[in-house]
Amino acid sequence: MEKRESRCLRNTKETKIDLALGLDGDGTRYQVDTGIGFFNHMLEGFARHGFFDLELKVQGDLQVDTHHTVEDVGIVLGTAIREALGDKKGIRRYGSCILPMDEVLVLCAVDLSGRPYLSWDAEFTCERMGDLETETLREFFYAVSYAGAMNLHLKVLTGGNNHHVAEAMFKSFAKALDAAVSPEPRIKDVLSTKGSL
Q1: pLDDT tens-digit series, residues 106-115
Q2: Against a cut of 0.90, is the pTM above it?
Q3: Which of 13, 52, 59, 187 is the least buried, fewest Cβ under 10 Å from its Cβ?
Q4: Residues 6+ apart with CB under 8 A from 114
């Protein structure tokens, strides 16, 4: 299988984003600068635990708030995932992970079906973590799921510390996505009776 990589740019009046993604990395090559410290931490965890290569540089209108930056990074990341996958031949398509982080337990399931859908069952008990508004996390995953044309289910099974909840969500997504994009030698084309995804 050829190395699966993509680079996506997004330039608007609200954000300027340059993102390079490699699906076949080892989780040690990542550089993330969104201007939002907590968001950087979450995306670094995503790259590390999903074994992805990730380079991301963002200039956003943070003088307004973090919404545009977080949502647009989701759009660009989802687009990069979709483009890096190409025709999706030979991949497992599905991935899931139930991830513990201390008292917190989060479930994530992914289907790279070509059909966008987000199922979200999570609550945060604070308005922000660092400089990041917690309500933007749903917008991020919604944008990833739609730009990436994937079913994405995130469910907090056991809540607790807000930092732990957010971090478990990003890490479980990373593990589920890594499983879904992984090659399966028994699949010669795509895993669908339709013949395409």
Answers
A1: 999 999 999 9
A2: yes
A3: 13
A4: 149, 196, 197
DSSP sequence for the chain: ----EEEEEEE-SSEEEEEEEETT--S--EEEE-S-HHHHHHHHHHHHHHT-EEEEEEEE-TTT-SHHHHHHHHHHHHHHHHHHHTT-TTB--EEEEEEEETTEEEEEEEE-SS--EEEEE---SSSEETTEETTHHHHHHHHHHHHTT-EEEEEEEE---HHHHHHHHHHHHHHHHHHHHSB-TT-SS-SSTTS--
The pair phi, psi for residue 21, each rounded to 5°, is -130, 135
Which residue is listed with tokens 């059909």? 115
The pLDDT tens digits for 85-124 are 999 999 999 999 999 999 999 999 999 999 999 999 999 9
How confident is the model at residue 168, as a pLDDT?
98
Give me 178's structure tokens.
Answer: 């890594």
